[in-house]
Amino acid sequence: MTGLPYCGAPPLPGGVAWNMDPLLLGILGLVALGLAAACRGGAARAAAALGWLVLALALVSPLCNLAVALFGARVLQHLLIVLVAAPLLGRALARTGLVAPAPLPAAALFAALFWLWHLPRPYAASFHPDGIAWWWMHATLAVSATWLWAAILGARSARPIASALAGLVTGLQMGALGALLTFAPRALYAPHVPAVTLSWGLTPLEDQQLGGLVMWVPGGLLFAAVMVAALAALPRPRPDVAAL
Question: Coil, strand, or helix at residue 127?
Fold first, then answer.
């Protein structure tokens, strides 16, 4: 395979670059316009604006270029999208009343896509110079995660058990994948070769272990918090009923 990955050549320390692709900037602009048109009310617009900003930074900032060199940076980029930007965007969409997805199917779709894109072959495909797999990876993760968070947050009052189960399933699957990567006996991702990762003081296996740990702990903790919050929304029996 000849040519550079979509986010550029693997950088050396101190040499990371911003991703100022006009197509990406144009799409982010269209997303911003769509959110502005869909969201009503100060809270929804504030959440949408902050979520859009985090999403844009994850894709445009030097993190995109660093992710070409380090698997841990790619994991951090994905977690910013699915654990920071997506909850904010999902909250904004849930407030619009335009979407009412079911939590468990949304969790199943997100889990399938999250595992798919972190399998060695699909992951390696995202480094192809044509950038097609890179676009599919980040678009499907961002959309499915936003859909999932809209489902979890939108159902927290009306369907708290389904919301809690969706959070539990998502936390478990992210934690399981993170643990598998942390304890894997060998490096699994071909793009992160020693000649690249050693410049950053990490072997490919250490880089993978760091990425797995980052995926395992923050993801599990956040979705555990979601589950607790959803369960806290369950109606409590009245004292006179509980005494019967």
Answer: coil
Judge contact between 170 and 110, C-beta under 8 A.
yes
The C-alpha atoms of residue 119 and residue 108 are separated, in whole angstroms, by 17
DSSP 3-state of 186: coil
Q: Which of left, alpha, beta for 3 (phi over 0: left; psi -120 to 50: alpha)? A: left
User: What's the predicted TM-score (pTM) here?
Assistant: 0.90
Quote the CA–CA distance of 108 and 146 in Å, as a whole number: 13
- Amino acid occupying residue 4: L
What lies within 8 Å, CB to CB, of 221 at 6+ separation is none
Q: Does residue 131 or residue 224 have the better pLDDT?
A: 131
Candidates 154, 131, 150; CA nearest to 27 is: 131
Residue pLDDT, tens place only, 93-112: 888 766 667 899 999 999 99
44-64 as b/e: b if 16+ CB within 10 A: bbebbbbbbebbbbbbbbbbb
Look-up of token digits 């445009």 = 60
pLDDT in tens, 190-221: 999 999 999 999 999 999 999 999 999 887 77
Q: How far apart are CA 208 and CA 189, in angstroms?
A: 8
pLDDT of residue 105: 94
Q: Is the pLDDT of residue 19 over 90?
A: yes
